[in-house]
Amino acid sequence: MQCAGQTLAPYDETMTTKSSSHRVSERIGAIAESATLKVDAKAKALKAEGRPVIGFGAGEPDFPTPDYIVEAAVEACRDPKNHRYTPAAGLPELKQAIAEKTLRDSGYAVQASQVVVTNGGKQAIYMAFAAMLNPGDEVIVPAPYWTTYPEAIQLAGGVPVEVLADETQDYKVTVEQLEAARTERTHVLLFVSPSNPTGAVYSSDEIRAIGAWAHEHGLWVLTDEIYEHLVYDGFDTGSLPVLCPELQDRCVVVNGVAKTYAMTGWRVGWLIGPADIVKATTNLQSHATSNVGNVSQRAALAAVAGDLAAVDEMKVAFDRRRKLIVSMLNEIDGFVCPMPHGAFYAYPSVKAMLGKDYSGTRIDTSAQLAEYILEKAEVAVVPGEAFGSPGYLRLSYALGDADLVEGITRMQKLFA
In DSSP terms, which residues pair with 140 in a beta bridge? Predict the structure, then answer.
């Protein structure tokens, strides 16, 4: 606000006083843009220009949210009780439904008081790390990893320590690798199964071994179960705190409605944890956002309290696309794509494609390869650099069958 008779001096970039020596804090300035959302945005921008771009970038089901969930939201809009503030940790009835859903789907018995409803899974992940980490605490992050994990850890003051598993291991880390990465500063293990970006799923025995290792060394575990319902081939797996009950007091489970119920835009996730973490994250959310939007919470209540019929229908389509995309990718000379057992991603190695010229263009990295594919074939994919593993591409098969076939056919022709 300008005082009467006062003329404000223009901004001078050379000013170096303490109050004006920077415009953006180092902490926030260091955050990288979400690579997956960036690719998706670029694909949509090119489409808006009239180019027939097919996007394999966003991890977003192509199905509409089921009608009964939408109708619950419509009714919620009309109810004045949803026009007001509600408890920061979530609607009590939604928290209870999440607890019941967790027992039904995972066999994990928790109380509604252990649940915090958040603005999507991303907020749950950040708040969990913020509650668990002191500055300098290390978090072991299996790679390839979803792009948000390292950023959330660093924003919370922690240090991500990457442990890479390649296609020869089906993208799954071993206890030996985890132990080699453990130091005196290690405080948390991040565990994700099924995985984004690889679709890897850990077996029950592998989960038990990793859980026993974490318990032996007194570590906390954050386990992301957002893709819990997208497991194929009858693969034997389970929830870490169920298979390793000794870890329950040092375990935080993150989940949400986005992937299971095709509700990415509704922004409802949650975390489940011990009382001290729940209290801390509730206090944080009370200052950051207050409650999640009540209409979205009512929609989520309809989702988690309902049956899984719509989920099963989507899973059938994803399973069909999974087999198709892996088969077609492996027909491209230089692509090596293991069959994923979960989620809706294919993660081929393209290392054999690098260090070569294509139509006069030298391609040395998977990032350059992704740019080349977008420019020449008008197909958007995400390079492995975004997931801590250069030499790979991530393709989401959560898109229509016709687009899937057309997109991979373009890539086949490009490298024929």
Answer: 161, 189
Tens of pLDDT along 336-381?
A: 999 999 999 999 999 999 999 999 999 999 999 999 999 999 999 9
Single-letter code of the amino acid located at 316: V
pTM for this prediction: 0.91
Give 15's contacts (C-beta < 8 A, 6+ positions apart). 21
Residue type, 105: D
CA 10 to chain centre: 43
Q: How far apart are alpha carbons 197 and 386 in whole angstroms?
A: 10
The DSSP code for 196 is T
Strand partners, 268: none
Contact 397, 56 (CB under 8 A): yes
Instruction: List C-alpha distances in Å: 35 to 65, 311, 336, 371, 384.
Output: 25, 27, 22, 13, 10
Residue 325: closest CA among 228, 404, 403: 404
CA 246 to chain CA centroid, Å, is 26
The residue written with tokens 């049956």 in the block is 307
Cα separation, 56 vs 66, in Å, equals 23
CA terminus-to-terminus distance, the chain: 64
Length of the chain counted residue by residue? 416
User: What tokens were used for 292?
Assistant: 């999640």
Which of the residues in the chain have pLDDT under 50? 1-9, 11, 13-17
| Helix/strand/coil for 231 | strand
